[in-house]
Amino acid sequence: xxxxxxxxxxxxxxxxxxxxxxxxxxxxxxxxxxxxxxxxxxxxxxxxxxxxxxxxxxxxxxxxxxxxxxxxxxxxxxxxxxxxxxxxxxxxxxxxxxxxxxxxxxxxxxxxxxxxxxxxxxxxxxxxxxxxxxxxxxxxxxxxxxxxxxxxxxxxxxxxxxxxxxxxxxxxxxxxxxxxxxx
Amino acid sequence: xxxxxxxxxxxxxxxxxxxxxxxxxxxxxxxxxxxxxxxxxxxxxxxxxxxxxxxxxxxxxxxxxxxxxxxxxxxxxxxxxxxxxxxxxxxxxxxxxxxxxxxxxxxxxxxxxxxxxxxxxxxxxxxxxxxxxxxxxxxxxxxxxxxxxxxxxxxxxxxxxxxxxxxxxxxxxxxxxxxxxxxxxxxxxxxxxxxxxxxxxxxxxxxxxxxxxxxxxxxxxxxxxxxxxxxxxxxxxxxxxxxxxxxxxxxxxxxxxxxxxxxxxxxxxxxxxxxxxxxxxxxxxxxxxxxxxxxxxxxxxxxxxxxxxxxxxxxxxxxxxxxxxxxxxxxxxxxxxxxxxxxxxxxxxxxxxxxxxxxxxxxxxxxxxxxxxxxxxxxxxxxxxxxxxxxxxxxxxxxxxxxxxxxxxxxxxxxxxxxxxxxxxxxxxxxxxxxxxxxxxxxxxxxxxxxxxxxxx
Lengths: 183, 457
Known about the structure:
Chain A has five helices and eight strands; from the N terminus they run E-H-E-E-H-E-E-H-E-E-H-E-H. By secondary structure, chain A is α+β, with helices and mostly antiparallel strands. Chain A folds into two domains: 3-79, ACT domain (Alpha-Beta Plaits, 2-Layer Sandwich), CATH 3.30.70; 92-181, Alpha-Beta Plaits, CATH 3.30.70.
């Protein structure tokens, strides 16, 4: 069965998911996976959909656009590439947290090191937070490190980069957070 | 997916609240090292300890880095030397202590515990030899710890051993007089000593334990204090029921950290995981004090009336949280109140807010006893024995571990300062009422019979 990915981006308001899921239902599509996130007031949703009727992608897209575009939401649809479920690789999950004064190039600086060591980011949250001394920028990366990666070299490079960027950084195995907070 | 709150609160505990793993202690049985020849015995012990503990420090550091939780101390506990080296005389026992110290240095181990004897019901030749060797052994080594169990709920109190330990403590202090009697900081007298304590000076590997085992001691007084402070700031109307719940939840988190790190080290060393010791162990650093918890719970100082009640609640809440968090709990498991090792408790003793009598009362509800208490150097051996006997009685009657680690500081009087350095900290010498009035009782000797275990009153 053919699968497509639907992206929706734009100002958040109640009813976005309701509209999309109703149209997909009406078009005989099955909603497999959904993820949505909101940053400040911007909504972003990704929908993986299996099509019951081959070749009606354009029809589905137009139906959603007709309802959502008047309220400023951008909608895109594309065929899904590759196998349905990503290949499972054996890797260990770590958490990187950084805290420090906001400035240009923080995310770029850290992710450059991650890319160099082929470390994959599985989740990223970066927010500016106020405190007594002004704005602090907090970044939380959930990352997967492959067994072949030289952990010590990666750690040293990451700590070195954080120092250059004036950031307080921590790299810890994910399990410690789960053990502490979850029964 | 982890929540931001989970991640940030974990970081807070690590960075600002002194959360760490206080000790990973590798227990090593020495029964298969026994020999009638002292050189052969020492060489067997060296070979076994080196084989099993050779990578302990590196593995603890590596696991600490991976999880971002420092393992502060790496220690070894061994079978009681008085048992495994029973045939030897005091001179040879001394040689063993020197060799153990040398092994600890070369393996970068912080402390090695088990220069120990179990004499609650009586002495063997080996027990006498080991106790005789203690003063010299502790003076000439810096990483060897000694513990003597003189009482148990099942056997009663061996008062001959209590008297002997009073004299041994005096002698140990005298020959380390140039360092404020530091030898006594590595010597502890116990009732009901657990077989799997990871904390010093009481760590040894009991005879019922496996060939090798990892036991872990957590820390966390700073984390508990901050959790109480935060809870009270958020809701000033919280009562003690709610606050004990806060302590319980915090102890759960702290224990999970110890369990995780201990299990990882055990897997890498390929030895079984033993227990987590749930004791709240302070250090002489600001923000890492058990004494400060008393202030967070409304007392002006530890030592004020109400202290015993707070300690009882704290100890119980820590156990409740910790037992749920860990698969195996053991060791001492409770709050420590080591006077010199806790900045705030040392301060209370200095101000006269905390007397030896109040300390003794508090030990009836906490895990360990009169711990790291500096007393005047001229305190008589009989008075020291009297203090030990009282402490042992508390343990024996209440079916719990109690201990006395008393340091008569040579040439110094109550109110003067004694300094032991590092984790052992420094303390003001506490006043002891010593008019020689205990001597007649201590001289009687014999064994106080085991107490009845019903009709609890």
